[in-house]
Amino acid sequence: MLPRFSCHTLRHTFCTNLCAAGVDVKTISEIMGHADVRVTLEIYTEVTKDMKNRAVKSLEDYLNEDD
């Protein structure tokens, strides 16, 4: 059985997935219909564990470029 969720929950998931896919926040905000990107960033977008891991990997790659 699926857990209970609302259509609003799907909006949060959709927004977070767009962000995880690398779509810029202004485009996401437009797609979501938000007049202010702060709504998109502060309310709808969650930072996932995978996003954090990719950020750390990107930093490691950058710091190791000269090796």
Number of contiguous helices:
4
Largest sheet, in brief, is: none
Low-pLDDT segments: none
Q: Between the first and last Cα atoms, what is the distance in angstroms?
A: 52 Å
Q: Which percent range describes the beta-strand content?
A: under 5%
List SSEs in N-to-C order. HHHH
User: What percent of residues adopt helix (DSSP H or I)?
Assistant: 55-70%
**From the helix content, strand content and strand pairing, which structural class follows?**
mainly alpha
Spatial extent as radius of gyration = 15 Å
Overall geometry comes to flat
> How many domains comprise the coordinates?
1
Model description:
The chain is built from four helices and no strands. The model has no long low-confidence stretch (mean pLDDT 92). Helix 2 packs across helix 3 (37-44). It has one domain (8-63). With 67 residues, the protein is mainly alpha-helical. It has helices spanning 7-20, 25-32, 37-44, 49-63. The longest helix is centred in the C-terminal third of the chain and has 15 residues, at 49-63.
In short:
The protein has 67 residues and is mostly helical. It is built from four helices and no strands.
Please tag this protein with its features.
single chain, mainly alpha, 67 residues, flat
